[in-house]
Amino acid sequence: MTSLETHLKYAVQNTPRYTSYPTAPHFQEGITGKVYASWLGELGRSDTGSLYVHIPYCREMCWYCGCSTRATRRQAPIAAYLETLMREIKQTAALAPERLRIGHLHFGGGTPTILSGDQLAALMEALRRHFDIDPEAEIAIEIDPRVFTPELASNLVGLGVNRASIGVQTFDPVVQAKINRTQSYDTVARCTEALRHAGINRISFDILYGLPAQTRDSCINTLRQALQLRPDRVSVFGYAHVPHMRRQQRLIDENDLPKPAARIEQALAIAEALAGEGYVQIGIDHYARADDNLARLAAAKGVCRNFQGYTTDQSSFLIGLGASAISRLPRGYAQNTADVRAWSQAIETVQLATCRGIELSREDRVRGAVIERLMCDLEADIGAIAASQGTSLDLPDLADLEADGLVLCNGSRIAIPESCRMLARIVAARFDAHLQNRSAVRHSSSV
C-alpha cells in the first residue's frame, strides 16, 4: 500500500480533534452548577490556572464557522452580554476558597474585538479585580482583521495583551465568496502592522484547507502571502463540514468541497512549504518559528493541548467564562450552556450556567494523558503514564495500524512515524474508551 493509499484509507474516518479527553460530545447532563461549584471549592492557591473568556458575537457569519457564535449589527446585545459576563466573573471567583493565580488568559469567540476599547477595559478590570493575573502572563486575543483599528491595537497593549491570533483562512477571492468571508491581503497586513507598531509582536495566523473550491495552488498562494507578514506561529486547520451541527454550513455547496485526496494534498503541501520556511511542526496542525517558545517546548516534549489547540499553557486548571465556555478542573470538565438567554438567566439569578460535563475517572486520566502525548509528541510510553497514576492500562489492538505503518510498537511504548503525523487522531482514537462505547457520535474527518 502506497503512502497516499494509506492516508486515504484512514483520512476519511471520523475522529475527534482531542482538544480534551473525554471529548465534549461525551459530556453528561449530570454535571450541574452545584457540582461545578464544589469542584471550584477544591482549588488551592498553590496552583496556577488559566482563564478562557468567550465572546459569542460577530458582525456577520462566516459559513464555514464551527464556533458557538451569532451575528449582530446591534450594540445592545453585546453590552448586555458584557454586563452579565462581569457578574459571572465575580460569582465564579467567589466560589474558590482563595484568590486564584492566573498564568494564561485567552479571549475567544466569535469576535472578541467586537467589543469597544472601553468595554474591553471594563472586562479586563473585572478579571484583574477577582483573579491574580501574573505580570508575566500570556494574554491572547482572537482577531477578525475586518473589524480592527489601529486605535484598538493601542488599547489592547494598555490592557496587557501580548499575543494576537488573526483569522486569515484564505486569500483566494473565489473561495472567500463561497464561505461568506471577504478580506484582502491588505486588510490583514494593516492589522498585523498596527499590532506590531503598538507593541504586540507575538502574532499567530489561522489558515484553513479543505474549503469549497479550494485547490493546492490556492492554499500555497495564501500561505506565501501570509508568510510575507512573518507570523510567529501558523495554525493550519482542515475545514470540518458538520452541517448537522452548524446550520450556517448548510449554505456551503457540498459539491464544491475538495475530495479526500485533494484535502491530503493540500495539507501536505502546506506542511512542506512551512518546513521550507523554517517553521517547526507542532503536533498535527500548528507550526512555529524555531526560536518561538512553543517550538522550544515541543523539543522538550512539554507542549500541551487544550481547547485553543497546542499551547505552552501547563496550568493545573482552566476556568471558562461566558456562554458555551468549558472549564477543566482537577475533578473534571464543566460546560456552560451555549444558549445566551439561558446563560444570562442563570447568572442573573446568582447561579452557575453549567449544563453538562464529566467527572474524570482514574482510567480517563490515564487515557487522556496517553492521547495528549500522542497528539503532541507522536509517541507515548503507556506503561510509564499508567504507573504515574498508580494503575495500569492494557494496550488496545493496534495490529492493523502497525501493519499499515501508522504506529511502531516496542513493549508499552508506541510511536507514530513522521510520515503519518497527520493521522495521529486515528491512533489516539484507539485509546478513546468513550468513542468505542458510543460509536454513533459524529465527528469530522481525520484529515
**Mean pLDDT figure:** 94
Strand order in the sheet with the most strands? 9-10-8-7-6-5-4-1-13
- What is the tally of beta strands? 19
Based on secondary structure, the structural category is: alpha/beta
Distance between the termini: 18 Å
Judging from the principal axes of the Cα atoms, what is the shape?
globular
Fraction of residues in H or I helices: 25-40%
The value of Rg in angstroms is 21 Å
Strand content: 15-25%
Q: Which spans have pLDDT < 50 for at least 5 consecutive residues? A: none
For the biggest sheet, the summary is:
9 strands, mixed
The number of helical elements comes to 16
Notes on the protein architecture:
This protein has helices spanning 3-11, 33-40, 76-94, 117-130, 150-158, 173-179, 185-198, 216-227, 260-276, 293-299, 340-348, 362-377, 382-388, 399-403, 424-429, 433-437, and strands at 48-55, 57-58, 70-71, 101-109, 132-143, 163-169, 202-209, 233-238, 279-282, 286-289, 304-306, 309-311, 318-321, 326-329, 332-336, 354-359, 379-381, 408-410, 413-415. With 447 residues, the protein is α/β, with parallel strands linked by helices. Strands 9-10-8-7-6-5-4-1-13 form a 9-stranded mixed β-sheet, with helices on both faces. Strand 9 and strand 10 form a beta hairpin. Helix 3 (76-94) crosses helix 11 (340-348) and helix 8 packs parallel to helix 9.
